[in-house]
């Protein structure tokens, strides 16, 4: 195949993986919500609902605000979705199979996570409206607090592999998964992963107390795209989490890609449950816990992982 | 293809933004349980505007502005409101006894399938005030901040609070801001995420006969069945819980609380206990709700705000002056911990206690003393707890982060219907 076709095929593969994952999370969220609410779980309507919402979004017109930053409003969802896609490109699906395997895969993933703040801030800033702006400020206020433990939790997985390549990180788990080798890593990663996707208890920029926050002025397709971009980021966080901590494609009997899907699905299910079972955390509380508890624990995790290699 | 696409869109839940007029707060809240419609928090994400009940005429322009915020295609359903309900809109008007869900679904379907025209704006698309700024980007004042271009103040640097000078952003909330009761309007000045100044600038939603007929208002002038009164109290606390839980992002448990509010019966205190346990397990008491310092605690304790004051340690309750309640062995629940979490625990505790009282009250009736303990505190002719609470709002929220400020306001259970009803009783 020509390089152009390679790129198109890779883009289609990533888009397909993200779309399937986002759809699974949307449906799982509906199932978890109905279960927690004690309402009947009607499977077919829950599966059909995301498609109907997409069709309605496409049918709904756009709105504008007073003197918005039009380019920023357009770019923000694309940037967030692009960052999710960038992370997914690194995902090893089977031994030797990943769309990209740079030696610095860990750094690329970390950079994608760091840039989420730019996307969210742009999304809140660009409508030139107070509630979205408050949401943007909030995310800026907590971003550093979750990025550092996130990076440290991931860094510990690079030590056994002695490589920053995500493929090597998975290969190093052939005999022992990182969730066993460094048990603090996955819980820390999941907590901060919720913050990266501003989801559930860490949905601070788009919270109900801001009537939607950075999304408060979005209508129609723009709103839908932002929601899809956010779900995609959560899928990427879950998929890379499954690769870094749960052994990626390793598992008995089933083919590697199936194990990747199963493990990613498990982490997405945990996220869907967290959305309905855990209350939103106060910003001050989260920042305090992140610096006082998560960062030291993540550092301890790195030291312990390193000690095993000595 | 287009037809299939439109039919798919029409199958979606109709996104509805509701303006709850006088006496319709709970009727609108019940729509959260309905299949086929979704109540949304922002008019931008709605296709249908539901005007429920009579709106105070002073809210007319704000309601029209909300209407114009909806994206096209859009339509309005006016429910149980007179001909003036959102005057000018080519709305579907239905009576009080009609089914608003069926009406909203039908209008939504017609709208999406192209059988109904989208409604035009009600207000002219123009700047709200003449341009008074000096720069090309609306800054209006010196440098890049300050000034009041287009009649609205811009952000400007505030005083140094903790080593960092932040922009102070003037923010108006309401009168139709989803986390607050319809009709309530707050002017805030916010630095970063901290409310540095707050003023209540509006608290009118209108008056309705229904609000005046509430059991608690009637108990001021006529004996009422204690069983009915306590069941109403438990339901009011559960309805409050549904809104407060939603504010903390717990939408699913919020629906559970709302369902319980509609179906709970005398003696069902175990069901309330199970809900309270589920709420506690969400961690909301540990990491979501703010503390209340001694100054605020003292203000709340003195204001006779029912469970709020009792949670702050003041065991005052008008029911203690009623021999019928004494005969039932009633004792108020007081001082159940610190902060807003204590108010939550108090309300769940009182809901459970009320169901127990309702099951034991038999045919006992209240004694008319001129005051009653409503779910929000002591009420009397011309004296509503919501009025006392509104006076405290600035002192309560200044210095708090945004989320803490709204959680504190939510804990007060402001009821503008009760406020209007008690003012009406005085006038009569």
Could you please describe the fold and organization of this structure?
Chain A is mainly α and 310 residues long. Chain A has helices at residues 3-37, 43-59, 70-89, 105-125, 130-161, 166-171, 178-181, 185-196, 220-245, 256-277, 283-309, and strands at residues 92-94, 97-98. Chain A has one domain (3-309). A two-stranded antiparallel sheet of chain A has the order 1-2. The longest helix of chain A is centred in the N-terminal third of the chain and has 35 residues, at 3-37. Chain A starts with a helix and ends with a helix. Helix content of chain B is 41%, strand content 14%. In chain B, helix 2 links the parallel strand 1 (14-20) and strand 2. Chain B folds into three domains: 2-112, Rossmann fold (3-Layer(aba) Sandwich), CATH 3.40.50.12280; 149-203, no CATH class; 209-427, Cytochrome-c3 Hydrogenase, chain B. Chain B is globular, with a radius of gyration of 23 Å. Chain B has 17 helices and eleven strands. The chains are: A mainly alpha (310), B alpha/beta (428). Chains A and B meet through helix 1, helix 2, helix 5, helix 10 and helix 11 of A and helix 1, helix 8 and helix 16 of B.
């Amino acid at each position: 195949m020509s390089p152009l076709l390679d790129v198109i095929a890779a883009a289609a593969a990533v888009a397909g993986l993200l779309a399937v994952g986002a759809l699974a999370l949307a449906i799982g969220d509906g199932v978890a919500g109905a279960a927690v609410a004690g309402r009947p779980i009607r499977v077919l309507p829950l599966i059909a609902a995301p498609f109907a919402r997409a069709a309605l979004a496409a049918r709904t017109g756009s709105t504008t605000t007073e003197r918005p930053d039009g380019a920023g409003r357009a770019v923000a969802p694309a940037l967030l979705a692009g960052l999710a896609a960038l992370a997914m490109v690194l995902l090893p699906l089977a031994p030797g199979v990943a769309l990209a395997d740079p030696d610095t895969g860990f750094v690329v993933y970390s950079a994608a996570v760091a840039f989420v703040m730019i996307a969210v801030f742009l999304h809140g800033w660009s409508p030139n409206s107070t509630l979205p702006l408050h949401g943007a400020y909030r995310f800026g206020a907590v971003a550093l607090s979750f990025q550092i433990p996130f990076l440290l939790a991931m860094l510990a997985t690079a030590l056994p592999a002695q490589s920053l390549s995500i493929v090597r990180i998975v290969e190093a788990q052939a005999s022992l998964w990182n969730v066993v080798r460094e048990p603090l890593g996955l819980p820390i990663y999941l907590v901060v992963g919720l913050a990266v996707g501003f989801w559930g208890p860490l949905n601070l920029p788009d919270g109900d107390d801001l009537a939607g926050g950075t999304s408060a002025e979005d209508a129609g397709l723009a709103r839908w795209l932002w929601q899809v971009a956010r779900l995609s980021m959560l899928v990427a966080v879950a998929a890379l989490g499954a690769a870094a901590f749960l052994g990626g494609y390793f598992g008995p009997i089933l083919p590697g890609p199936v194990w990747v899907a199963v493990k990613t699905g498990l982490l997405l299910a945990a996220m869907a449950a967290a959305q309905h079972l855990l209350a939103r955390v106060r910003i001050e509380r989260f920042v305090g816990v992140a610096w006082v508890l998560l960062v030291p624990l993540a550092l301890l995790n790195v030291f312990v992982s390193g000690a095993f290699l000595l | 293809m287009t037809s299939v696409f439109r039919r798919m869109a029409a199958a979606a839940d109709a996104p509805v933004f509701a303006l709850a007029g006088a006496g319709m707060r709970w009727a609108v809240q019940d729509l959260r349980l309905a299949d086929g419609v979704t109540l949304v928090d922002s008019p931008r994400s709605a296709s249908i505007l539901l005007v429920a009940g009579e709106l105070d005429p002073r809210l007319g322009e704000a309601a029209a502005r909300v209407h114009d915020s909806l994206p096209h295609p859009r339509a309005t359903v006016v429910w149980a409101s007179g001909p003036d309900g959102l005057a000018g809109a080519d709305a579907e008007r239905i009576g009080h006894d009609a089914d608003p869900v069926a009406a909203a679904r039908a209008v939504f379907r017609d709208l999406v399938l192209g059988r109904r025209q989208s409604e035009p704006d009600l207000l002219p698309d123009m700047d709200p005030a003449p341009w008074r700024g000096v720069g090309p980007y609306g800054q209006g004042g010196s440098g890049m901040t300050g000034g009041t271009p287009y009649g609205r103040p811009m952000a400007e640097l505030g005083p140094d609070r903790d080593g960092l000078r932040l922009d102070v952003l003037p923010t108006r909330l309401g009168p139709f801001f989803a986390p607050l009761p319809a009709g309530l309007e707050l002017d805030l000045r916010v630095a970063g995420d901290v409310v540095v100044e707050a003023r209540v600038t509006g608290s009118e939603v209108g008056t309705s006969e229904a609000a005046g007929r509430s059991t608690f208002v009637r108990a001021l002038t006529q004996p009422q069945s204690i069983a009915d009164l306590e069941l109403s109290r438990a339901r009011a606390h559960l309805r409050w819980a549904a809104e407060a839980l939603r504010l903390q992002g717990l939408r699913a448990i919020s629906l559970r609380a709302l369902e319980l509010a509609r179906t709970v019966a005398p003696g069902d205190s175990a069901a309330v206990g199970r809900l309270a346990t589920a709420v506690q397990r969400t961690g909301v008491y540990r990491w979501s709700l703010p503390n209340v310092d001694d100054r605020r605690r003292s203000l709340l304790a003195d204001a006779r705000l029912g469970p709020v004051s009792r949670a702050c340690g003041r065991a005052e309750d008008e029911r203690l002056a009623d021999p019928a309640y004494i005969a039932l062995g009633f004792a108020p629940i007081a001082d159940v911990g610190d902060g807003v979490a204590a108010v939550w625990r108090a309300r769940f505790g009182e809901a459970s206690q009320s169901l127990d009282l309702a099951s034991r009250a038999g045919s006992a009736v209240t004694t008319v003393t001129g005051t009653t303990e409503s779910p929000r505190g002591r009420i009397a002719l011309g004296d509503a707890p919501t009025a006392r609470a509104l006076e405290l709002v600035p002192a309560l929220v200044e210095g708090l982060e945004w989320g803490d400020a709204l959680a504190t306001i939510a804990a007060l259970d402001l009821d503008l219907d009760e406020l209007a009803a008690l003012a009406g009783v005085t006038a009569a």
